[in-house]
């Protein structure tokens, strides 16, 4: 890490680590911020979009049908940022027919761990505030039984890590977070800031919280995924989100280079405004897209419910397809708690109205897919 690049003493200080390399120790939050007219307008727009999404979550007839596909999509995209190759269709297919996706099992397991970590975090908020203890629980769930498990799941690091290209060292790395002895105090300061209320706008506090967590980099692996989980959990805890429907991973993946540049620019030049601007634009765009996606899913559901109003079993199966658009007759029988012939009739009815399509071309071991649902869940850059 080149100390000459770090030109903002207000943002943090450089320390010489035991190995002779430089490391960065961030200054406790919050920084002194100036709200330009541009930043104020972006905050207003992001707040409005987030409030609209939260209101939608309160009034959905069956929010569970939306939450599950949103969580699955987020898990895939957040894991993809870290190099996992599994896509949403493969994740859903693996749930119905394990091994059918022909994907590295570790990839699928990492994505499923992300889902479990988020679910655990949401449950944990009913018992614990967002805290270092909950952060460790998230990490333990995230890293259980996957590559990187040797990186002490659920424990803060006791050795140095760094951020940089493959093959880099602490000396050549782009960024070196605090050494372990400095990290403990940095985490304590971060947690104290996390518990502050009514001092700065929630979205700004969320942006600051995320940046400093990434600057501290308290785990040997999994910091990025935990940091992205914390955004959603923070907004739920502050009651800015009624349901877990907002996730920034799609925005971050689409603007990945700028994401890392903005984080680094805070450390090197104290450019908090640039980072907060990036974050607020991401919140607004993501919230608007989530609102559109929810509208399309609900409209799709109502359209096909009308077509199935005289077919009770097929109507019941329709809702299950919003949780996972892949289905077999055996799975349908289990979900409907009915016989195989009755389940087949429901599947056939869904085929007749164009919701299900058989994908194998076989007369045995058939697999059906609700393509209209999968298209809406998977699609990025929805038309305005």
Provide the descriptors you would attach to this structure in a database record:
single chain; 384 residues; mainly alpha; Fic-like fold; Arc Repressor Mutant, subunit A; two-stranded antiparallel ribbon
Descriptive overview:
This protein is mostly helical and 384 residues long. The protein has 2 domains: 290 residues, Fido-like domain (Fic-like fold), CATH 1.10.3290; 68 residues, Winged helix-like DNA-binding domain superfamily/Winged helix DNA-binding domain (Arc Repressor Mutant, subunit A, Orthogonal Bundle), CATH 1.10.10. It is 58% helix and 4% strand. It contains 15 helices and 5 strands. Strands 3-5-4 form a 3-stranded antiparallel β-sheet. A two-stranded antiparallel sheet has the order 1-2. The chain starts with 11 loop residues before the first strand and ends in a 6-residue tail after the last helix.
């Amino acid at each position: 890490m080149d100390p000459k690049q770090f030109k903002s003493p207000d943002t943090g200080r450089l320390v010489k680590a035991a190995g002779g390399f430089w490391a960065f120790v961030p200054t406790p939050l919050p920084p002194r911020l100036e709200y330009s007219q541009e930043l104020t307008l972006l905050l207003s727009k992001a707040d409005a979009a987030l409030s609209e999404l939260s209101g939608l979550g309160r009034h959905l007839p069956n929010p569970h049908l939306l939450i599950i596909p949103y969580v699955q999509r987020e898990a895939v995209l957040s894991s993809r940022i870290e190099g996992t190759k599994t896509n949403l269709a493969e994740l859903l297919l693996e749930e119905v027919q394990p091994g059918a996706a022909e994907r590295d099992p570790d990839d699928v397991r990492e994505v499923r761990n992300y889902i479990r970590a988020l679910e655990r975090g949401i449950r944990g908020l009913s018992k614990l505030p967002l805290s270092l203890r909950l952060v460790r629980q998230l990490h333990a769930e995230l890293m259980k039984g996957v590559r990187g498990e040797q990186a002490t799941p659920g424990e803060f690091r006791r050795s140095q890590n760094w951020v940089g290209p493959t093959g880099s060292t602490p000396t050549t790395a782009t960024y070196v977070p605090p050494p372990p002895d400095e990290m403990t105090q940095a985490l304590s300061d971060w947690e104290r800031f996390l518990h502050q209320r009514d001092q700065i706008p929630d979205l700004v506090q969320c942006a600051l919280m995320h940046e400093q967590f990434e600057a501290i980099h308290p785990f040997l692996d999994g910091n990025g995924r935990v940091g992205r989980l914390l955004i959603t959990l923070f907004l739920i805890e502050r009651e800015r989100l009624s349901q877990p429907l907002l996730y920034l991973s799609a925005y971050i993946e689409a603007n990945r280079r700028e994401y890392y540049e903005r984080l680094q620019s805070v450390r090197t030049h104290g450019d908090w405004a640039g980072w907060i601007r990036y974050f607020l634009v991401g919140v607004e765009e993501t919230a608007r897209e989530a609102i559109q996606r929810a509208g399309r899913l609900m409209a799709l559901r109502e359209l096909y419910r009308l077509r199935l109003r005289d077919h009770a079993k097929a109507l019941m199966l329709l809702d299950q397809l919003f949780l996972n658009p892949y289905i077999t007759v055996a799975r349908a029988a289990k979900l409907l708690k009915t016989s195989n012939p009755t389940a087949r009739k429901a599947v056939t009815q869904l085929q007749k109205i164009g919701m299900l399509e058989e994908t194998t071309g076989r007369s045995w071991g058939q697999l059906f897919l609700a393509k209209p649902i999968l298209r809406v869940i998977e699609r990025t850059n929805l038309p305005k």
